[in-house]
Amino acid sequence: MNIIEQINKEQMAAITAKRIIPDFGPGDTVKVMVKVAEEVDTSAKAKGKAAKKEAPKAAFRLQAYEGVVISRDGAGLAESFTVRKISYGEGVERVFPLYSPFIADLEVVRRGKVRRAKLYYLRDRRGKSARILERSDARAKRLNAAFKGFKRPKGQADDLTKISTINTDLEIQLKKLNVLRFDQIVAFSDEDLANLDDIMQLNGRMEREDWVGQARALVAEAAAVEAPAEAAKA
Which of 17, 86, 135, 195 has its CB 3.0 to 4.6 Å from that of 140, i.e. a possible disulfide? Predict the structure, then answer.
């Protein structure tokens, strides 16, 4: 592997650690949550001194863009996909780099049944003739039933990096799947572990590094700290 391929692989890993990239293709309807930058005026006046103007900082808001994928192009870090939608009677297309840091989330809304890799013919069609049949085969059902995450637990989130082999990137990825607390990890079934291992591409790390055992020890440690405090109140 040359240096460029290595850098590309590292960049791809950094993006996939922060968000999940689902399996999708031409004909599928997707919803892309795009980060839109907005300038915020942060200029301030220092007391007793001349006013100093700071450079405006960018804030982001999320904007949903939903449409049909008409093509996927490129490979690796340079891969992109084109989404087409009808807005006020006019066809609008937008090209998104698959690994763009400005994509906050990517969701497959509906899977389409098509035979082509490029659906440019949709540009000349309107109404019923532009509709795409929904896929209902075994593969579509399997993809639609794919694991998407856990139910968000109540209570304050724990610092998951206290588990020795979880770094910040893994913690971000776990939180996107609503894994926020040690007691969740302790209660994981074999199926939960298999789902997480598959979607996060951990290659058996959770079991090998005993995340459940480490989480159980942290829960017991927290309970031991709380018990004396409750006894003192009594």
Answer: 135
